Amino acid sequence: MGINLPVSGPAVVAHGKGDLRIEDIPLTTPAPDEAIIEIAYGGICGSDLHYWLHGAAGESILKEPMVLGHEIVGVVLQQAADGSGPGMGTPVAVHPATPAPGDARYPQDRPNLSPGCTYLGSAARYPHTDGAFSRYANLPARMLRPLPESLDLRTAALVEPASVAWHAVARAGDVKGKRALVIGSGPIGALAVAVLKRAGAASIVAVDMHDKPLEIARAAGAYEVLKGDDAKAIAAVDADVVIESSGSHHGLASAIKGATRGGKVVMVGLLPSGPQPVLISLAITRELELLGSFRFNDEIDHVISALADGSLFVDPVKPTNSVSPMALKPLK
Questions:
Q1: Which residues pair with 127 in a beta bridge?
Q2: Residue 110 has what pLDDT?
């Protein structure tokens, strides 16, 4: 028996710096491998805020209106016509990436580094890739991850950012029994704390400039919290593994100072484009490993399993201000 499909729905659209609108957009006919998803929740990423406030996120500059949002979960309203992917009524999380090869070389087992990769709600390429802060979205079936019954949609809104944190921690290798330091305790930093806790880090110190993020980080599993301006205490941590998630050169300096000799610094916070001051001499003389971390790959499947079985504790980070597109009303 068929269902009456919607013809349009409200969406959050960034038009440029300081220009964010809620507009009614048409629901186009999905491709054969696309399902129609009714979006339930969308977590607000820092990139979404940058597109709204600055008209750009790093080197990705808005050149045309773009629907924001990639930390999204929802329910399958119509299965893909080719029969692929989950069926109607299935709650799903979304892997927002579409890897694509290009001329540049990259490791084939790391599709997040493919030069032609696109991402929902990203202006990195033109035409831009619309996101899914919308009531309805046509999404490729390959992006969809069915959610276990034990995982509610609101908690599942953390699947995408938790996957970013999981990938960052994995870049450091085995952290069991290691001293860990997290610089920047926003959502990614707090989730990194939770992932480190699950992975068996012996101690976890979280750093931020503000009290609320530190409160959340402690609740997520940090053994100790420090203010970002306490340089002496940060340097004394002597961490085997540092996760830099502040996205500032000041945070990176703290990460280098707080790492032990021969330690690893994973840089997941995205610094602004252009040259940045770095304590590179200290990194050299201490033989630190500076590791980049960008998005994620199949870690999303591990995150869903860990959230479902309760081994990844994210309740303190659970969104309280996530966008619910079902409640949006278009601007007239």
A1: none
A2: 95
Q: What are the φ and ψ backbone dihedral angles of 272, each rounded to 5 degrees?
A: -60, 155
Confidence (pTM): 0.94
* Number of DSSP helices (H) and strands (E) in the chain, helices first: 9, 18
| DSSP letter (8 states) at residue 135 | S
Sheet containing strand 259-267, edge to edge, reads 224-227, 203-208, 179-183, 239-244, 259-267, 289-292
Strands (E), the chain: 8-16, 19-26, 34-43, 56-57, 60-61, 66-67, 71-78, 91-94, 97-98, 118-119, 136-140, 144-146, 179-183, 203-208, 224-227, 239-244, 259-267, 289-292
Q: What is the pLDDT of residues 21-50, one digit of tens each?
A: 999 999 999 999 999 999 999 999 989 999
**Digit-coded pLDDT (tens) for 43-80:** 999 899 999 999 998 789 999 999 999 999 999 999 99
Task: Give the residue among 319, 324, 332 at the shortest CA–CA distance from 161.
Answer: 319
| Helix, strand or coil, per DSSP, at residue 22 | strand
Full set of structural domains in the chain with CATH: 8-158+314-327 (3.90.180.10), 164-292 (3.40.50.720)
- In DSSP terms, 310 is beta-bridged to none
Task: Give the pair of three-digit tokens for residue 178.
Answer: 């290691």
Tokens of 16: 């440029």
- The helix (H) or strand (E) run that includes residue 171 is helix 159-171
